[in-house]
Design a protein that fits this description.
The protein is mainly α. It is about 55% helix and about 10% strand. It has 13 helices and 14 strands. It has a 3-stranded antiparallel sheet with strand order 3-4-5. A 3-stranded antiparallel sheet has the order 12-13-14. It starts with a helix and ends with a helix.
Amino acid sequence: MYSKKDLIALRDFYKNQLIHNTVPFWFPRSVDHEHGGYLFMRDADGSLIDDDKAVWIQGRATWLLSTLYNTVDPKQEWLGWAKHGHQFLNRYCFDHDGRMFFHMTRDGRPIRKRRYFFSETFYVIAMAAYGKASGDHTALHQARNVFGKCIEYASIPGKIFPKYTDTRPAKGIGVPMIMINTSQELRDTIGDDRCDHWIDRWIHEIETHFVKDDLQCVMEQVSPHGNIIDHIDGRTLNPGHAIEGAWFILREAAHRSNNAHLIQLGCKMLDYMWERGWDQEYGGLYYFRDVYHKPVQEYWHDMKFWWPHNETIIATLSAYLMTGNKKYAQWHRMVHDYAYTHFHDTQYGEWYGYLHRDGRVSQTAKGNMFKGPFHLPRQEWYCMQILDQYLKSNPV
């Protein structure tokens, strides 16, 4: 169990790490004053190793800075830095068909476009947060407009790109998950009447098609009707990803006055995937597992990546604050201690991204096409917020 003193210490720890360690690693050094946007491809000491730009991380960083301005402290420097991301996204990152690119040169020339629409979802939350922070009504309109397009992409098969084949059709949990979170951010930041309806639909899809009570797991992909696809890709579990989905559902439970069914669902997902994913020998979360305990194809299956630990810190803390179950306090302490011992760089700040199974640093980069200022600062910000709300609601 955590005492009130423990929870206050945790809140203060997360706030201090966010404001004085994590954010200063990235800003102001990453702001690109010449071309706009941000330069996030950085080594352990913050030195630049590549000047390309991942569009989704441009959106994530714009969201982060704007959200800090909206919820933590209205610092003009945060809003000013957010403006660089807002301008780069709108100036360079949309293709002629209305879709967004994934990979850009420093000066805004497109390199790659992906077959998913995650750049668009992070654009939505970035514009919503930035529009609220700046009072820019065009940004608010853009957030709602692109959100509507994301609903189409998520709900109409083949809307983005035609399928190559129907030989083995599948759907992933990533789409309903990201759309739940996008809807929550849009609703909670600027409001949108569509959000509750679609959140209900996506939670129902996860619960009925991806959560497998008979196997006590959450599948990463299933057939269109929710059946397990008994091939390597179809059997592969990603514990940290499913646990991220668990805390999205717990967040929705909190929004709905601690809805008992959603608390039960979110905790069940966390329970299943903690048991599947936690490394009993070395600690930390495995990256991939097989639903039937068969070999996994990817060679990095037993590595420890930074972001699953961020998501599990949030999920275990959320579950504890909502249920009071001491098991979740124990799990939270385990994953918190593992992560801040092994990933955190005490010399330069922020976290390393990739560890070997035994906890040794695999490589020193802190920023690349997939890692930037999002999962870690979001974790520290969100944990700080829910702890503060809990302590205010439970003063004794």
